[in-house]
Specification:
By secondary structure, this protein is mostly beta strands. Helices cover about 15% and strands about 40% of the residues. Strands 20-25-26-27-28 form a 5-stranded mixed beta sheet, with no helix packed on it. It has a 4-stranded antiparallel beta sheet with strand order 2-31-30-29, with no helix packed on it. Strands 3-4-5-6 form a 4-stranded antiparallel beta sheet, with no helix packed on it. It is globular.
């Protein structure tokens, strides 16, 4: 019998198509992370059904909104806080960060002279009483945490100038700089206390740590950062000399670093900017498994024209990759969406700045075996130029990063402005769940031009601090204004 071919397309076996029910599709979408859910909604019009479900189903809409703002759901049970209440708090949180409700501000006034700063979720005030200092801690409000702010907690302590707080570990690290009477070198005395008991921290190797900077001269400022069992203390001297002390406060292993600027990715990974023998700047990725024998895992070269400029990381208050989330948090910043902002400045402050952003995750997943330095042309497609800030933008304070958001203060027509910028990859689709506006905005938006909100502020602003929930403006002779987010 001869073999018969199908003469027409009609005679061929037709493929079988199945229509998945809404209930099954919702169950599938509930397993997607925010990025995958965003990609599904961003797809072609063939998937308008998915966009309709995300718009109409409360739990999907809530997760989608979390992803748009670079957040993730917190450990607090949905039984304690229903979904409708969570969605309402999330909306308020987003509006506050976008400065759509600027009237909601908390004002604190302090009698000078005192030292005022921000550490973790606290504003601290250091009063000098001669033989001792009185440290007062004021907890900042947070809509994400289901707990009322505590009353000011006074701590009597020796002379200190700078404070860092890690509330998850109940750690209060205070620093005092003094001149050694023998060799006239500047030395540091670092104290480690438990916020709850006001005594020595149980995980610290000792209640205090002394170290000499091996430098004579005058100090300009001291800054410190805590990341797990590691801490960095940065000291700037008159004349521009900067030193960094990397300290494991569990074991008191420490070493001095000569890098220009440092940034923690997590407890075991550190980024540093430096310049090679040829003057070309680069980013070094350090492995901190052992503080005394830290090794360079990778090097990423930067543009050669930056050799005459000061290259720094934006000051970050983003949660680190291994940071524990408080058990009473409704939601928190997702570290996997943290953006790293790199600045190249020809002057310490003002105009003539170039800003670039790159996802922190780019530096986390590196080959185990050390390879040759990565040339700028091989990774510049990952590092995006932020076109909102040009050479003519006069930046006064900042930039400061929190997750995928950037905060800074600039001058425009002799008026200072507080600016917040969203570097998230999700922002073009923010309005497209209900309309096609988001996709149109994405097509017409210039590359590197990110959504930004600006608001005029007082000319008496002396400093700006950013936390996970607040933007704090410190004003001259007034105290400070805290803008809760």
């Amino acid at each position: 019998m001869p073999h018969h071919r199908y003469p027409t397309a009609v005679a061929r076996p037709r493929a079988l198509y199945y229509r998945v029910s809404d209930d099954v599709l919702i169950s599938i979408l509930e397993y997607l992370d925010p990025a995958s859910l965003w990609n599904a909604c961003k797809a072609s019009q063939a998937l308008t059904r998915i966009r309709r479900l995300v718009r109409d189903v409360s739990i999907l809409r809530y997760r989608f909104e979390l992803g748009l703002f670079g957040l993730k759901d917190g450990p607090l049970s949905h039984r304690r806080m229903p979904l409708s209440r969570r969605a309402h708090i999330l909306t308020l949180y987003k509006h506050h960060w976008n400065m759509r409700e600027p009237s909601k501000e908390l004002t604190l006034t302090f009698n000078m002279p005192v030292v005022i700063g921000v550490a973790g979720r606290f504003i601290y005030e250091i009063q000098n009483h001669g033989v001792f200092n009185l440290l007062n801690l004021f907890e900042l409000p947070s809509p994400r945490l289901i707990v009322a702010p505590t009353q000011p907690v006074p701590h009597q302590c020796p002379n200190i100038e700078q404070v860092s707080i890690d509330q998850v570990q109940n750690l209060l690290m205070s620093i005092h700089a003094y001149t050694n009477s023998v060799n006239k070198q500047i030395a540091l005395k670092v104290h480690f206390r438990d916020i709850r008991t006001k005594g020595g921290h149980p995980q610290a190797f000792a209640p205090e740590y002394d170290v000499s900077t091996q430098v004579t001269g005058q100090l300009v400022k001291i800054e410190s950062t805590i990341c797990g069992s590691r801490a960095i203390i940065t000291i700037e001297f008159v004349g521009g000399k900067v030193q960094h002390l990397l300290l494991d406060w569990h074991t008191f292993q420490a070493r001095w670093l000569k890098d220009m600027h440092l940034h923690f990715l997590d407890e075991r990974t550190l980024l540093g900017t430096n310049k090679g023998p040829d003057g070309i700047p680069f980013i070094a990725v350090y492995d901190l498994q052992d503080v005394m024998r830290m090794a360079i895992k990778a090097q990423f070269l930067l543009p050669a024209e930056w050799s005459t400029q000061k290259v720094e990381f934006a000051r970050s208050s983003s949660p680190k990759w291994d940071t524990r989330i408080p058990s009473n948090a409704l939601f928190s910043v997702a570290p996997e969406w943290n953006m790293l902002v790199l600045t190249a400045k020809s002057t310490p402050q003002g105009s003539g700045q170039k800003w670039y952003c790159v996802p922190e995750s780019f530096f986390r997943f590196l080959p185990r075996k050390k390879t040759a330095p990565v040339l700028w042309k091989e990774w510049n497609h990952i590092c995006r130029r932020i076109m909102n800030v040009t050479n003519h933008t006069f930046v006064v304070y900042g930039p400061f990063t929190m997750g995928s958001r950037v905060v800074y203060v600039d001058y425009h027509d002799k008026t200072p402005r507080l600016c917040t910028m969203d570097l998230s990859s999700f922002h073009p689709l923010e309005d497209s769940i209900d309309t096609a506006k988001g996709q149109l905005d994405e097509r017409h938006r210039k590359i590197g031009d990110f959504p930004e909100t600006r608001r005029p502020i007082s000319s008496r602003v002396e400093d700006v601090k950013v936390t996970e929930d607040n933007i704090v403006l410190i004003l001259v002779s007034v105290g400070l204004i805290c803008m809760p987010s």
